[in-house]
Amino acid sequence: MPQDLADATGGELARLYRDRKASPVEVAQAVLRRIERLNPRYNAFCLIDPERALAAARQSEIRWSKAEPLSDIDGVPTTIKDIVLTKDWPTLRGSRTIDRAQPWHEDAPAAARLREAGAVIIGKTTTPEFGWKGVCDSPLTGTTRNPWNPAMTPGGSSGGAAVAAALRIGCLHIGTDGGGSIRIPAGFTGTFGFKPTFGQVPAYPLSPFGTVAHLGPLTADVADAARMLTVMSRPDHRDWTALPDMRRDFSAGLDGGVAGLRIALSVTLGYVQVDPDIAKLVEGAARALAEAGAIVERRDPGFTNPFETFKTHWYTGAANLLRSMPAEKRRDLDPGLLAIADEGERIAHMDYIAATNARGALGQHMSVFHASYDVLLTPTLPIPAFEVDRIAPAGTDQSDWMHWTPFSYPFNLTQQPAASIPCGFTSSGLPVGLQIVAAKYRDDLVLRVARAYERLDPIKMPPVPVIYG
């Protein structure tokens, strides 16, 4: 049993509850104490509701005392990104333009499924305004900081969720990913982040950024992500794009290993300049999987950088987001969001159609690629975390976040499942992520390879002196 119950994983908590060695109320109290101590420094949470959390924990405690838990995540502390509707709490999306004083009577599907499974929802995690960029600061909630070095960004847009996972403030964290927004902060914070196949987790309302936007888990280990996805992927009639109800248990087969799997390793995708520390660590991770029995081959997937294709989708999504917003509210927006929305409004409809066609061609290309390879390995990011309150690293002339996230957004265009798992640290002590990508609907393969690698190189969370420093 962990010395501090807040350090336990969701799987460990279920065993402790079952054996009556800990209670959901004790765990909720431990997590709330940690929030109180750490959130002022790291700013992972924009809303905390101890009263509701403890009430939910007490109900879970009753169920476990009767040996009648609703699921194996009953009583497990959980957070919701402040993009996702959560009943009785405002969903402000990191924006001063959202009216807090309105009815908040509805859970989004992911929040509803977790609540129905007995998860104890602690609070809401920070995001940049409307999740528009790959770092985590907003006009409403300020700057979120990296637990490995508070001067550095944790990435975004699910930055608060990733920081909460790294600090063990809760076990299960809902993130969203429209261009890397789960995998980017997972890579920068050394946590596990999984973007499932599009539609695997029902969404409501659908993202204004369109069908590049997914929902998925951020956790401290792979098994918790599998448990969380099993619950979140249950159906919801409000999402007409959701996949059919398969009632899949994503924990099944998780420990199947990688023997015989065909793995392609692409350190650059054929066109990306990668930090040498990161390239070396990703190559080392591939070697470890090969030694575990996988058939690993260096192979670029063979597409050119789809930057313009993604940019067209993202910028027109921003224009769609703001198209009905009154001028007086626009003045309160993050200037960067306003700038890309303005540019999105100038994109011609035929250019958008061309980008849609290019997206389809990329998806077809990757479908053919995965006929030869079960998974593709890449770095999650080509660079380590950089300073907070910047959209790009110092010394670059880039004005947006997409130039330094070339490994993530292609697989939003293709809607494939993709995860980031830590694979070591740079010489400056910052985490590095390994990205694992599989064909659409093969979420199980991503999780299986991630779990196999995790067993070879267990995920390391920030040490206590860093957390409490």
Write the layout of secondary structure elements.
Elements: H1 10-18, H2 24-42, E1 45-48, H3 50-65, E2 77-81, H4 109-116, E3 120-125, E4 137-138, E5 142-143, H5 159-166, E6 172-177, H6 183-189, E7 192-195, E8 214-219, H7 222-232, E9 262-265, H8 276-291, E10 295-298, H9 307-322, H10 327-330, H11 335-345, H12 349-369, E11 375-379, H13 410-413, E12 418-425, E13 431-438, H14 443-456, H15 464-468
Parallel strand pairs: 2-3, 2-6, 9-10, 9-11
Antiparallel strand pairs: 1-3, 4-5, 6-8, 7-8, 7-12, 11-13, 12-13
Helix pairs in contact: 2-3, 5-6, 7-14, 9-11, 9-12
Walk me through what this model shows.
The protein has 469 residues and is α/β, with parallel strands linked by helices. The chain has one domain: Amidase signature (AS) domain (Amidase signature (AS) enzymes). It has helices at 10-18, 24-42, 50-65, 109-116, 159-166, 183-189, 222-232, 276-291, 307-322, 327-330, 335-345, 349-369, 410-413, 443-456, 464-468, and strands at residues 45-48, 77-81, 120-125, 137-138, 142-143, 172-177, 192-195, 214-219, 262-265, 295-298, 375-379, 418-425, 431-438. The longest helix has 21 residues, at 349-369. The mean pLDDT is 96.
List the main descriptive attributes of the protein structure presented here.
about 475 residues, alpha/beta, Amidase signature (AS) enzymes, eleven-stranded mixed beta sheet, two-stranded antiparallel ribbon, 15 helices, globular
